[in-house]
Amino acid sequence: MANFSKSNVPQFSVDVYQNEYLPEGGREVNAIVTVTSTGGGTSGGIALGRVAASPSSIPGRTPGAAVVIMVDCSGSMEYPPTKMRNARDATAAAVDTLRDGVEFAVVAGTHVAQEVYPGGGRLATAGPATRAAAKDALRRLAAGGGTAIGTWLTLADRLLATADLPIRHGILLTDGRNEHESPDDLRAALEACAGRFTCDARGVGTDWEVKEVTGIASALLGTADIVADPAGLAADFTRMMEDAMGKEVADVVLRLWTPVGVEIAFVKQVAPSVEDLTDRRTEAGPRSGDYPTGSWGDESRDYHVCVRVPEAGIGQEMLAARVSLVLPDPAGGAPQALSQGLVRAVWTDDMAASTSINPQVAHYTGQAELAQVIQQGLDARKSGDFDGATAKLGRAVQLAAASGNADTAKLLSKVVDVVDAATGTVRLKAKVAEADEMTLETRSTKTVRVKK
In a 3-state reduction of DSSP, which class is residue 172? Predict the structure, then answer.
C-alpha cells in the first residue's frame, strides 16, 4: 500500500488484497483493491480537479459545487395528487440542504425540459434569499405532458457547464417510463453527459422502468433507488443532497498499468455496489488505462481487478499490475498521483498456497454473482420461466445468507418463501407486490463489505 497526499486535500490510500501464488501454468490473477479517501471533510480540504473561481474553493473552505435537481412533472405525476405535492416538498427539502455558496438550479421535466429556477440559462448561488425564492418557484410546479429524460439531462448538463466548479452533480426524479423519446435518444444524452457530471436517479411509485433508472445512475456514476411511497421522497432527497454536499474531490480515475503480455480480464467496482467498469477504459499512455470513479468524500470503495499473465515456471515472480489513483489535469498537464498499490504473481509448487482463495476475492466474487442471479431470476419470473426463476433466486438466497447480506436477504424473502437458506431451497411466492419486486431489482447490486 502506498499513500500520497499534500496539505489541504483529501488523502487517498490503496490497499491490495490477493493470493499472489499461482500453480505452474497458472495465468489468472485476482485482487481486491480498497480505495479510501479521508480527511477532506475535516481538515479544510479543497476540491481537486477543475480550478474553481469561487471563494468556496480556497484553502480552508469547502469545495465549489454545482447541483441541478430534475423533477418529473409529466401528467402521471398528478395521480394520485399527493405525488406532485410530495415531489415539490422533497425538492424544497433538498434546496434547504444546500450549503451556502453552492450553485444550483431546478428543472421541470416533461417531454421537454424547462428551467424552474433561477431561469435564464444560469445557476443561482445558494443563500437564504435564493433558497426562499427557489421554494417559492416550486409552488408553481404542475403536472402535465410526457416524459423525455434525455432532454432533462441535456439541460442539466448545459446549466452545470456554466459553472467552473469541481463538483457537478444532478438529482433526477421520475415516476414513469421514458416514452416520449427513443432509447437511442436517451443513450445519446447519457453518452454526452458521462464524465461531465454525476447523477443520482430515483423512481417514485411503481410505474417506472427499473433498467432505465439504474442505467442513468450507472452511466453517470451515481446511485439509483426506488421510493415506492411518495411520502418518503423528502427524507430521501435530503439524504441525497447531504451526500452530494459531502463530496470533496471530483474526476479521480483508477489507472491500471500492466506489463507486456498481461491481459486485462475485467475491472469492477464491487462495494458499495457492483459496477462493471471494464468497457469504460480510456487509454492513458503505454500499457495504461483509466477507469472513472466519479466524486469522492470521506469514504471507502472496493474494486475487483482480474488480469491474465503469461505462463511462467516454478519460482518465478512478476509484477502483474500497478493500480494507481490519479487526478488528471484538465489543462493537459501532468496528472497528480494520489496513491498506488501493486498486484503480484508468484509461481509455486506448494499446492496449499496456490489453491488458497483470498477471503476478500472470494467474498466479492460471491457478491457479484448475487447481483447477477437476482437479475436473471427476476427476468425469468417475468418471462414465465418459473423453474429457472426458482433456481436463480434460490442461489441468490444462498449467497446472501453466506455473505451476511441481510438487506438483500430481506428483500428476497418478499419474493420467495425460503425453505432452507443454506442450500438455497426456495418456493416462488404466488403473489408479489410490484413495489417489492422493483425494490429487489433496483437494489440488487448493493453489496456488503467483507467480514473482518
Answer: strand
Helices 210-219, 149-160: crossing angle, 10 deg rounding:
20
The whole-angstrom separation of Cα 343 and Cα 40 is 27
| Complete DSSP assignment for 233-295 | HHHHHHHHHHHHHT--EEEEEEEEE--TT-EEEEEEEEESB-EE-GGG-EE-STTEEEEEEEE
Taking alpha carbons only, the member of 117, 163, 164, 162 closest to residue 139 is 117
Mean pLDDT of 206-218: 97
How many CA atoms are closer than 13 Å to the CA of 165, on its beta-carbon side? Answer: 28
d(CA 70, CA 138): 12
Number of residues written out for the chain: 452
Report CA torsion sign: 138, 142, 145, 146. Answer: positive
Measured CA to CA, the distance from residue 240 to residue 254 in angstroms comes to 24
Judge if pTM exceeds 0.85: yes
Alpha helices in 161-232 (DSSP H): 183-193, 210-219
Distance CA 339, CA 6 (A): 11
**Tens digit of pLDDT for each residue in 217-260?**
999 999 999 999 999 999 999 999 999 999 989 989 999 999 99
Here the cell at position 102 is: 453552492
How does pLDDT run across 148-167, given as a tens digit for each residue?
999 999 999 999 999 999 89
Q: Is 356 helix (H, G, I), strand (E, B) or coil?
A: coil
Q: Pick the range with the lowest mean pLDDT from 201-205, 334-338, 381-385.
A: 334-338
Cis peptide before 310 (omega within 30 of 0): no
Long-range contacts of 429-437 (CB under 8 A, 24+ apart): 434/206, 435/206, 435/226, 435/228, 436/411, 437/378
| Cα 287 from Cα 321, distance rounded (Å) | 10
Provide, rounded to the nearest whole percent, the portion of the chain with pLDDT above 90.
87
The reported pLDDT for the residue numbered 63 is: 60
| C-alpha distances in Å from residue 56, one per residue of 76, 265, 315, 365 | 39, 41, 55, 41
Between CA 409 and CA 440 the distance in angstroms is 10
Which among 356, 340, 362 has a CA at the least distance from the CA of 450?
A: 362
